[in-house]
Amino acid sequence: MATSRAPQLRLEQLEDRSVPAVLSGFAETAFATGLVQPTAMAVAPDGRIFVTEKGGNLRVVQPNGTVLSTPFLTVGVNTFSERGLIGVAFDPNFATNRFVYVYYTTNETVPV
């Protein structure tokens, strides 16, 4: 008579999840404050930093660290788990066409 055994679980050791230390010769400095769940950023040719916030706002940080009070763009997003506004990029011809691309999870349902 054959016996069945439950499969054995093999657990993998995870790497350390602590915040890395600042390397010698470098300093950690807050550049901008007031951002809510920032997920990505891209630096425009003029030095402005465009920062995505998970909740759907694309914020602009001036080269001096000031966050503009009005978002550059707001999109409706689904923020469940890893969803939301999660990416930003500039068109290679941004200096002339001013195109900014964002990557996000829409909150709307799409008919199938």
What does this structure look like?
- The mean pLDDT is about 90.
- The chain has one helix and six strands, in the order βββββαβ.
- The radius of gyration is 21 Å and the shape is extended.
- By secondary structure, it is mostly beta strands.
- It has one helix at about 95, and strands at about 40-45, 50-55, 55-60, 75, 85-90, 100-105.
- Strand 2 and strand 3 (about 55-60) form a beta hairpin.
Q: What proportion of the residues form beta strands (DSSP E)?
A: 25-35%
| SSE topology string | EEEEEHE
Low-confidence spans:
none
Rg on CA atoms, Å: 21 Å
Give me the side-by-side strand order of the main sheet.
Answer: 1-2-3-4
Look at the structure and give the mean pLDDT: 89
Helix % is under 10%
Q: TL;DR?
A:
The chain has about 110 residues and is mostly beta strands. The chain is about 5% helix and about 25% strand. The chain is built from 1 helix and 6 strands, in the order βββββαβ.
Features:
mainly beta, four-stranded antiparallel β-sheet
How are the SSEs placed, and which strands pair?
Layout: E1 38-43, E2 49-53, E3 57-61, E4 73-74, E5 85-90, H1 94-97, E6 100-104
Antiparallel strand pairs: 1-2, 2-3, 3-4, 5-6
